[in-house]
Amino acid sequence: MTETKKDPAVLNTDVLIIGGGFGGLAAAIRIKELAPETDVLLVDKQTIGWGGKANKGAGVLWVLAPGDDIDAFVDFHVNNIGMHLNDQDLLYAMARESYGAAKKLADWGVNVTKTPEGELDVNRLPFGWSLAAADLDMMQPLRAKADSLGVRLLDKTQVVDLLKQDGRVTGAAGFSLLDGRFSVFNAKATVLANGDCDFGVMRMWANACGDGIAAAYNAGAEMRNAEFGNFYDVVNKGTGIPIVFGYNSLYNAAGEKISAKYIQGPQPDIPISIILGMEKEVLEGSGPIYINMAEFAKASGGGPGIFRWDRPHFNALFGHEMEKAKQYGPPPSERMEVSLGFTGELSAVKVDCEMKTTLAGLWAIGDTSYAGSAWAGAAEAPPGRLRGSGLMNALIAALLAAPSVAAASKETAPAVPDKSEIELLKEKIFAPLKRDRGYAASDAIRSIQEVVVPVKYSMRRNNERLEEALAIVKEVQSKLPELHAEDPHSLVKCHEASCIALCAEMGFRAALARTESRGWHYREDYPERDDENWLKWIIVKKDGDNMAVTTEPIPIERYKIRPGRTEAAPDAVVEHEELVGVTPEMIDWWWVNMEKGYPLWEPNDHKSFVWEVPPPEGGYLGAIQIAEEKMGPMPPMKIRIRWDDPEDCPIPRTYEHAIVASGIDSDGNVQAMILHEYERSPKGTRMRSTMRFLGPVPPALPEIWKKHDRAEVSTFPNFLPDLYRMWQSVKDPKINRQCNLARSSGKDPAK
Fold it and tell me: At 612, which helix (H) or strand (E)?
């Protein structure tokens, strides 16, 4: 190809930012704010302001808003999301900076939704954090802001490799997509902001091919947490469009609600258990899997918080998506077939709290290093089981990196490029163009997709299948020296194929090394979490022609939150208003006859009720109910509740009548318990309800439960006296059960 014979385009700059998406633009803007005299060059293989992922998603921003408890959030995250693989220092920093970062974004001209009073319009979620939102035209004002500050912008340029001298990164090399011209970038500081590896599978994320990850790895930088680059979500099988939070409303072909079967309690985002459960149902012949769209829409309005704001560009994009789905997808139906959509989201470049990599002169921000920063712990990142954290991570990472990048650009002398190194890189980069025929990049990418997409390789892992997957990857890699390109655009695909294959190897080798199950990593042959041996990060690094895998102990003794030292939430206590006209005997009767009026007890939130184990005649102990109900902003969930003996309950009891409702899992283990106690009062009954959690819970859950409990009990005077009197005409104790829960009556007569 004649273009490769042109003299290279050589560009010198103080700061080179590779990747002109959301994070790259934010970093460029902040560096220029801190050091206006600094020369900043922003390079992207697409068009800066239009490429990347930020303007194609939901536009939500995870924040800890005023009133959200940062300490409680960090505690919940470490124990329930990150599973103690977090860099807790950086997790605190991310939480602390999030609200101010969203305001900074608004200051830069992005349309961040606000209240009439000018404050951020946030949606508080039940797990102790909030969501803010920006409209999807966000990239245009960011590009305009960068341009106004004097940031140099270079579109349609693919960066392939990093330049190094004496162990320090001194720039990069690549080529123009427009004319194929070789490009050399000399820089005092280099920032990778060109995304993670999504393996080219899903439409929205097809451009994220691990370019920066591969460049950093090949330059000798360390990777961390590569085993968590295996994100799946529920998607409409007919259109491939993700159904965010759809995991709560899934059914198998027989009509059984599998969400209740595989998900225990409220979840902040899709749990690994439902992904494994969906595969299990299909393998056992109970597929296909369906989502009940009416139930989903009623529970979440299409996703908690995502559609609540009026955002013109967001509405236009999703309206267009829906129109296309109607035109080309399956006919609208209350029961829609779904499948698992694999995104991957491998983001493994290891960085510290300033986003510095393990190579001098190199920083990595946003999706390039989300998992590698370790603040998300044992979670696929993004989204890190925190919707809206992809954008926020990119923004805060840019803000954290900017001061040290600006300082380095002032303190570092410019390097003199090594001409022999430049020539070798040029030869390597353009090699596919010099072949008349050979291996097609599309074939290489397809072969990698066929091994990373199946759940049996990327989620339900074991030693044998991981070795099998690695063998397939290595076979693909053995053919990469034969890649053939015809023009600059197909040359880009050749390099993307190499990056995707490298990231696949990285993920599988890290997963093979972690011989336990933790968070988003599940090993069928090591199904238990192993804190004794695996409070470690997996580190991957280039070692000659090989990929070395080692471990790094987590400095758990330095961190505030440690395994085995978690305190359960304090008891949540509700002192109810006097229940006028309701007697204790009526409430005793209610607990063993709830199927006769369950929807009346809380008409807005109660959905269904069935006795799994009916109460014994004349008693109550051991009865188990499956109650489907909604609490506050959380989606409806089916809760398994067993009636237990107040005499065996650790919660102190004061009133005469009492019953214990124990929330149990599928094995009968108690997760939480409620002591309902009550006694006669002058006008009816006084009552107290005490919830005790036996482990960590979302910070907001106790208050959500208290509000729900008040709503339930306050309805007793409205329906229970009439319902009780009506049923007293039925004398058959098998139909109209009777029970006396007064302390003086002694033990349950059926015990």
Answer: strand 606-613
Helices then strands, counting H and E runs in the chain, come out as: 21, 25
Q: Which of 374, 375, 379, 354 is nearest to 364 (CA)?
A: 354
CB neighbourhood size of 609 (10 A): 18
Q: Pairing mode, if any, of strands 182-192 and 9-18? A: parallel
At residue 507, φ and ψ (nearest 5 deg) are -65, -45
Which token pair is 431?
């090699």
Q: 199: helix, coil or strand? A: coil
Q: Do β-strands 168-176 and 670-681 pair in parallel, antiparallel, or remain unpaired?
A: unpaired
Q: What's the distance, CA 384 to chain centroid?
A: 3
3 state DSSP class of 108: coil
The pTM (predicted TM-score) of the whole model is 0.85
Residue 600 has pLDDT above 90, yes or no: yes
Higher pLDDT, 352 or 607: 352
Nearest to residue 251, comparing CAs of 241, 262, 240? 262
For the beta sheet containing 231-236, the strands, ordered from the edge strand earlier in sequence to the opposite edge, are 231-236, 335-344, 289-292, 250-251
Q: Which pLDDT tens digit goes with each residue over 116-163? A: 999 999 998 888 899 999 999 999 999 999 999 999 999 999 999 999
HSE (side-chain half, CA atoms, 13 Å) at 637 = 17
Percent of the chain whose predicted confidence (pLDDT) is above 70: 97
> Is-contact 520 226, C-beta < 8 A?
no
Q: Report in angstroms the alpha-carbon separations of 646 from 46, 653, 661, 663, 693.
A: 66, 8, 9, 14, 16
Query: What H or E segment, with its residue span, contains residue 363?
Result: strand 362-364
Tokens standing for 721?
């006296």
Beta strands in 434-559 (DSSP E): 536-543, 546-553
Between the alpha carbon of residue 161 and those of residues 32, 217, 422, 477, the distances in Å are 25, 10, 10, 18
- The H or E element containing residue 512 is helix 488-513
| HSE-CB of 113 using CA atoms within 13 angstroms | 22
**8-state DSSP, 624:** E
pLDDT over 90 (residue 190): yes
CA 63/CA 254 separation, integer angstroms: 40
Structure tokens at 123: 């949606």
Question: How far is 241 from 463, CA to CA, in rounded Å?
Answer: 32
67: left (phi over 0), alpha (psi -120 to 50) or beta: left
